[in-house]
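Researcher: Structure for this, please.
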Amino acid sequence: MLQTFLYPYVSTLYGAAWNIQQNMEGLGIASSNFVQRDPQGHIVSSYWSPAQAAIPLLGMLALCSLALAVLFLVSGYVLGRKRGAMGVAGLLALPGCLNLVSLWPMLRYLPDQFAISGTGMLGAPLGFLPLLALGVLLGWSITILLADILPLGDRFGHLYDHLWCTAGIVAAVFFVADAGVGEHAKELAESQSTSRQASNYLARQTGAYAAWCEKHQRTSSASCRWASDVQQTLLDYASAHVAIFTEFGPRTSTDIYAHFRRPLPPQEVIAIRREIAAYNAAMCPVKHLAPGISQLAPPSTVCLGTPSMYCTAFADPLDGKVDKEHIGRTTALASECIIPTLVRLREEQQSLLALTMEDKRSKHYRWLYYGFFCLVVGGKIATSTMKLFSMGSRSRTEIRRTVQLFKDATQMVWAAGRGTMRALRRLWGRVSGVFTTARSTTRRRRAQAHARHTMRRLRALTQRTKPAPPQP
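Model: Predicted structure, token format:
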């Protein structure tokens, strides 16, 4: 029965502990990783357990909840003395009583999944709900107690309205910021999609070029060797996570022309680009009809116009000339257009990834602010409660009930302590008397035994010293 009564409190606090653990991991404050060591101190294993990491947080929340329950009860006493305290106690016991009669809703406060070191993950919304409730109750209780202890007056409510309006404006700013957080993530996803599609597109063209080299027995040329070697690199670019692409992606065009990640001499890179230009000229010839007028090769299975999204950067100069009209031509191998675009996309994704991580991290700071905002909400509710119970118009004998309650509680504890000490002294006197009587009896018995022993020795000694009777 006790377990059933406590279930609503434990389940909600456990969900709140998971929510705190998720946000602490997102901020890099805590981790759910645990290390096992042998007796010599060496690491033997490591594992992740968010449930185990949430247990200490559950204990802290339980202690804080008990302290908050005391503040809540005292606040109820301030409002209505014994009736107010009994009403607050009834509210605190309501979830457990409802669960005893199977009326408490069975909600899932734990998240469906937990992100290890998940920056930007805030946990289950229902797990944040108990924290909001605790924040509101704490703000309400503290404001009621301060209004009872200190002579705040009616001006306090007007001053609190300034804090309330300011906190509301900041919350509105955060709400608008939340609406724009997804823009950077959306741009990053679009850029990543473009880089992957461009890598696949270039991989197909270089694969066709490698097959053409084998058909025409030109596999020994620099461009044909590059077309075969670059397949794995392009596959990595097309399948890598954005964080991997920004870290190991091409920083310059030379990185893509490299031989298995080993840089090539500039002369060999220029030779590759020249051979590819000759290949495009042979497969997709451009007819010059008149000065300034030319006819491009018609689109076919070999010659295609490169999509504009794959050509958003100019290539490095070749023979002292930068080709700025590559996007308008049909080509068989658009490396001059796609390679510099991949370099630009890596730089773009690097900056967008930093902005996205900053946006995700800012979610946790807003999570903290919303917890503070709940305190402000609780205080605002308390100002209305004070007006409802006319706390500002109480007589001198009715104010500072908290101080009087503390004095009464102190006197009760002091009286109980004195009574306990007197009872302990009486008990000790009786116990010590029993031990004293037992020791006295033991000493008397020992003295009697010693006396009897002495008498026996004297009798024995007397019998030995008697003179022998005379002989007849």
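Researcher: Any notable elements?
Model: The first strand starts at residue 33 and ends at 37. The two ends are 104 Å apart (CA to CA).
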